[in-house]
Amino acid sequence: MTDLSSLARSLVVPGKGILAADESEGTADEKRLAAFGIETGPEMRRKFRDLLLATPGIEEYLSGVILYKETLSQKDTSDGIPSKEVDGLPFSELLARRGIIPGIKVDEGLEPIAEGSKETITKGLLGLPERLAEYHAEHGTQFTKWRAALRIEGDTLPSAAALVENAKRLASYACEVQRAGMVPILEPEVLLDGAHGRLRSRAVLEQTMRVLFETLNEQCADISGIIIKTSMVLSGSETGKKDTPEEVAEDTVGALMESVPREVAGIVFLSGGQTPDQATENLAAITVAARAKNAPWPLTFSYGRALQEEALSVWKGKDENVTEARAVFLARLAKVAGAIT
Ligand code: 13P
User: Fold this and answer.
1) Which domains can be identified in the chain, with CATH numbers?
2) Which of 64, 208, 219, 260 is most open to solvent, judged by the fewest CB atoms within 10 Å of its CB?
3) CA of 68 to the centre of ligand 1 (A)
4) Catalytic residue among 47, 69, 229, 335
5) Distance from Cα 271 to the centre of ligand 1, integer Å
6) Mind listing the pLDDT tens digit for each residue in 171-214?
7) pLDDT tens figures, 226-247
């Protein structure tokens, strides 16, 4: 096994998963803090990261955390919970000391693929090698994430152009990251938004992965040293249909087995707007289905919202709620990690 594939495998070890704590400034402010009535700004974003990353015991359930660049320059001060041991450590070091691998989101968000288009392409290839070198050398990051978003609309979207252009950028990104000695997570997220049925979502996931691997095969990336981050196969959010965990599992594992090569180091799931309970139950059913079908790759979680929401609603931005919010966060982590065992 190459160094990169064994590093990738260490992110998908049994019983552990990855926390996505990589929201950009705007998303952290608007969709995490303000959405829960919490003040915004750099110090509140630091406290938000501190709440999660300095929670005692997370190393039992987390192999890695995806950070955002702002967080790399911020330090833990364990607000409300004085702790000599961890006070004032950069977050990436705080994680590394606990055996949790620090990762970094390196894409720079989405822009319309063409003027007026509903579809997007992901920005961030410009200057990427320099940023990767800095994150790796100065902050000790070992893996990275790049997210593309694919919108379903009837039979027309995603367009071939959106699939191909996003796959090309994901592949270029993956090659650069491997050259820099880190493991790339490739996240072509098929969005939950829309009025499509579950079977359409399954077909789009398969098509997305096929196009991605055709493109990767033409480029330099060593696929045994990549991790795929994917959506689950679900009915569109506008249908109001609640798929059973068994339906989700059957279609998700089925689609991935049809389209993702066995050499890939692992597959991790995003929560994509599911409630924490849905994301936990669906992952448990996926784990069962993957075992029954002898799926070739390790599977685990890489959730953002489904791990954070309950903690944010307890915390409310107040120091006096930190202990209780951390307990709630740890309890959800334990449940999600329990779903994959
Ligand atoms: P969610 O679990 O909130 O979908 O976030 C995961 C992620 O990393 C999206 O890029």
Assistant:
1) 4-338 (3.20.20.70)
2) 219
3) 13
4) 229
5) 6
6) 999 999 999 999 999 999 999 999 999 999 999 999 999 999 99
7) 999 999 999 999 999 999 999 9
